[in-house]
Design a protein that fits this description.
By secondary structure, this protein is mostly helical. Helices cover 65% and strands 2% of the residues. A two-stranded antiparallel ribbon has the order 1-2. Strand 1 and strand 2 form a beta hairpin. The chain is globular and about 70 Å long. It starts with 8 loop residues before the first strand and ends in a 16-residue tail after the last helix.
C-alpha cells in the first residue's frame, strides 16, 4: 500500500537518497482527527434519539466507509477515507461505554468495559492475519492458508514481540474508562464523560504518528522520547538542590535513577 498510494516519498536530491513516511503518519492521524470532530456531534445524536437506532445506523455506515478502503487509489483519497472512517467510528466506543454504565453496577462495569475494549486487539489480530494471507495470493486459489507458506525475514519476530508488549497498555485504558463511567450519574453526563475520555485518546493518537520521522530511525526516533525527557528533567529541577551533595554523588557509582542530579539529553 505504501508504494501503490505513494505514502513513502524518496528524496533523490540527497546522497544517499532519503525516504519520508510523513504521509503514512498523517494517514494514521487523519483517522483520529475524524474521530475528534465526530465525538460530540454524534454523541449528541446518541443522547437526543434512540440509542439503538442511532448506533445501528452508524454501524452500517461505518461498514460502508470501511469497504470504501478498496476504492482508494491515491494518498489524498486515503486521507479522506480515513477521516470519515474515524468520524463515523467515534460514536461506537462512546455508545458502548454508556450502555455498560447504564445496565451494570459500579463493581460489574470494569470487567464488562474491558470485554468490548479487548475486541479491538482481538479483531486486529484476526484482520491482520487475513490481510497478510490475502497479500500472499499469487494465483486463483484464495485462503488464509497462504500465511503459513511465508518465511520470516529481517528479524521479524523481534518487532512483533515488542509490538505485542506495547499492547499491554490496553488494561490501563480499560480501567480509565471504567473509573470515569462508574463515577458519574445521569445519561447526559455519562455521554459527555465518555466523549471527553476519547478526546484525550484521539489527541494522543494524533500526536504519536507525527513523532515518527524516518530520518531519525538510526537514533530510535528521539521525538518519541523528547516529551518524557523534558518532563523528567523538569521534575528533577524542582527538587531541592545541594551543591555539596551534587559533588559527592558525582563520584559514586549511581544509576541515572538513583542520582537526582543526573539530567537526560538527546
Amino acid at each position: 500500500m505504501t508504494q501503490d498510494l505513494d505514502l513513502s516519498v524518496v528524496d533523490h536530491s540527497k546522497t544517499p537518497p532519503t525516504i519520508s513516511t510523513d504521509r503514512l503518519s498523517w494517514a494514521t492521524s487523519m483517522f483520529y482527527f475524524g474521530m475528534l470532530v465526530g465525538l460530540y456531534p454524534l454523541t449528541f445524536l446518541l443522547q437526543r434519539f434512540s440509542m439503538g437506532r442511532v448506533l445501528g445506523g452508524i454501524v452500517l455506515l461505518w461498514g460502508l466507509v470501511a469497504m470504501l478502503t478498496a476504492a482508494v487509489t491515491s494518498w489524498q483519497g486515503l486521507f479522506v477515507q480515513r477521516f470519515f472512517l474515524g468520524f463515523v467510528e467515534s460514536i461506537v466506543p462512546t455508545a458502548f461505554m454508556c450502555i455498560i454504565a447504564s445496565y451494570y453496577t459500579q463493581k460489574e462495569q470494569a470487567l464488562r468495559q474491558s470485554w468490548w475494549f479487548s475486541a479491538t486487539g482481538g479483531w486486529t489480530i484476526i484482520g491482520g492475519a487475513l490481510n497478510y494471507g490475502f497479500a500472499q495470493i499469487t494465483g486463483v486459489l484464495a485462503g488464509c492458508v497462504m500465511i503459513w507458506k511465508s518465511t520470516w525475514y529481517n528479524h521479524a519476530p523481534t518487532p512483533i514481540v515488542g509490538y505485542t508488549l506495547i499492547g499491554f497498555f490496553g488494561p490501563c485504558v480499560s480501567l480509565i474508562i471504567s473509573i470515569g463511567m462508574a463515577n458519574v450519574a445521569g445519561a447526559t453526563k455519562k455521554s459527555f464523560t465518555a466523549a471527553a475520555i476519547f478526546v484525550a485518546y484521539c489527541v494522543g493518537n494524533i500526536v504519536g504518528p507525527q513523532l515518527i520521522k524516518t530520518p531519525t530511525l538510526n537514533r530510535h526516533y528521539p521525538g518519541l522520547w523528547l516529551g518524557l525527557i523534558i518532563w523528567e528533567n523538569t521534575r528533577r529541577d524542582q527538587l531541592p538542590q545541594d551543591e555539596a551533595e551534587r559533588d559527592a554523588f558525582a563520584f559514586r557509582d549511581l544509576t541515572d535513577k538513583e542520582n537526582p542530579y543526573f539530567r537526560y539529553v538527546l
